[in-house]
Amino acid sequence: MATYEMGRQPFGLASPAAWLRRAGIAVEVFDLSRQPLNETQVMEAVRGADLIAIHLPMHTATRLAMQLAPRLKELNGSAHLAAYGLYAPLNARFLRAHGFASVLGGEFEEELCRLAVALRDGRVEGEREAAEAGQSVPRLAFVPPERVGLPPLSRYAQLEQEGRAAKLVGYTEASRGCKHHCRHCPIVPVYQGQFRVVAPEVVLADIAQQVEAGAQHITFGDPDFLNGPTHALRVVRGLHARFPEVTYDATIKVEHLLQHAELLPELQATGCALITSAVESFDDTVLERLQKRHTRADVERAVELVRRHGIALNPTLVAFTPWTSLESYQRMLDALQRLELEAQVAPIQLAVRLLLPEGSGLLELGREEGWLGEFNARQLSYEWRHTDSRVDELCLRVQELVQTATAPGTAVANSVAATRERIFAAVRNLTRAVESVAETPAEAEEDQQAAPLAAAAGVVLPARATIPYLNEPWFC
Ligand code: SF4
Questions:
Q1: What is the distance between the alpha carbons of residues 41 and 21, in angstroms, rounded to a whole number?
Q2: Per-residue confidence (pLDDT) for residue 178, from 0 to 100
Q3: Is the alpha carbon torsion for 459, 422, 473, 375 positive or negative?
Q4: For the residues 286-305, what does the mean pLDDT come to?
Q5: Considering only CA atoms, which residue is closest to atom 3 of ligand 1?
Q6: What is the pLDDT of residues 308-325, one digit of tens each?
Q7: For labeling, which of 320, 343, 402, 433 is most exposed (least CB within 10 Å)?
């Protein structure tokens, strides 16, 4: 069962479903972000299940699963409730308190099978212990995911390119985990600098079944697509050879974009339409605290590089951190505008506040620096307060503004680019209202010297109306 996966048809259901069926277990898969629990088929399956397993790939999914647990228990008190996926081990303590008997790790398929077989064979207790103890990330021999029973791709996020018909989007994963150690990243405590690959033939089989189901574009959900560049190239070469008309998007960190710049022409030639990159901040102090291994100057080089290869960039941000000041937030808006990224940044990114889940590499720093608060079990995050209360106030007001401006039914401008630009301008006005920011002469000069990078580099930008984007906003 899935609760929320950012508008993607869940790999985290399709992959374990294939493993479980191979082990002789009857499985039904439900994505509650697309089908309600009170649908007859869902209710019947829940009432008749021996094991109900919920995939937790992200924070929002975990909070929704905790809200869901009492209702599942009410419907079927004898079912074994399990949580699996990246956020499960991080939140094991709270998941158990909410009735989850088993909590499985990041590489979960084998463990989930073992648990299901044990339950079927009446060996629950011993295996439950084994499953709970499983915090490791074993190297699994993946099998092609089975997507039978999931809602059709037309019910999920689509790739919008203004002026053209929206594309149906499939979703797969060519790797999980990450070899980096960014301090704020929830992957680090689970994978501890390791990543695991899905064999190219398995990835391509998964893509093929989604193309068969109508996908015209594929999202690779790997935390970083270039953790293993050779593997990534094998996958996209295979994709392009077999389905030359299918485009794709992937997430690639700034450091990898620069380090593997020579791969960008091939990514573009094999159909890469969009790269999501965790820019996080334009403030070198913040970037250093997060141990992102890139600087503001690197971000600017990466933006120019990706553009030069005709690929759209979707930057993600951690806009509010304990080290963000009113001035640095204003400078972030200035930088986004100067780099002509206002229409490429999803408005929610301007409002993202640093999350501190259990196990975050920032907890120690927060204690040392004195800004870390108590763990909020409802939010599944440690609280933190900025030393300048105006920054917290700005954060709250930007969140309210973005929420109101993007709420369903809100009047929008005649294009997404225009809507985003309008929200960006409103955030800018709000920031000025919270404090009229006085730039230091040095900063003003720096911003002027850095004149529109693309223009300086002679880059022809894609027309705004053609910038592709996925029509489900990003939430952690
Ligand atoms: S590169 Fe991305 S996925 Fe890897 S640790 Fe850093 S934030 Fe996490």
A1: 19
A2: 96
A3: positive
A4: 97
A5: 223
A6: 999 999 999 999 999 999
A7: 433
Which residues lie closer than 8 Å to 310 by C-beta, 6 or more apart? Answer: 268, 462
| Spatial contact of 369 and 394, defined as CB atoms under 8 Å apart | no
Q: Is 186 in the pocket of ligand 1 (CB under 6 A)?
A: no
Q: Where are the CATH 3.80.30.20 domain residues in the chain?
A: 153-470
Does residue 223 line the site of ligand 1, with CB under 6 A?
Answer: yes
Query: What pLDDT is stored for residue 125 in this prediction?
Result: 57
Q: Which CATH superfamily is domain 11-133 in?
A: Cobalamin-binding domain (3.40.50.280)
The C-alpha atoms of residue 238 and residue 224 are separated, in whole angstroms, by: 19
* The pLDDT of residue 411: 59
Is the Cβ–Cβ distance between 308 and 457 less than 8 Å? yes
Residue for token pair 């680019």 = 417
Residues of the chain with CATH 3.40.50.280: 11-133
Judge if the beta carbon of residue 255 lies within 6 A of ligand 1: no
* pLDDT of 191 higher than 90: yes
Q: Of all helices (H) and strands (E), which one includes residue 82?
A: strand 80-84
153-470, which class in CATH? alpha beta
Residue type, 127: E
Q: What is the mean pLDDT of the chain?
A: 89
Closest residue CA from atom 1 of ligand 1 = 180
176 CB near ligand 1 (under 6 Å): no
Cα(307)–Cα(300) distance, integer angstroms:
11
Summarised one tens digit per residue, pLDDT across range 420-438 is 999 999 999 999 998 764 4
pLDDT value of position 132? 52
pTM for the whole thing? 0.90
* pLDDT, mean of residues 6-10: 94
Q: Whose CA is nearest to atom 8 of ligand 1?
A: 185
How far apart, in Å, are the Cα atoms of 473 and each of 15, 122, 342, 420, 476?
A: 24, 43, 15, 12, 10
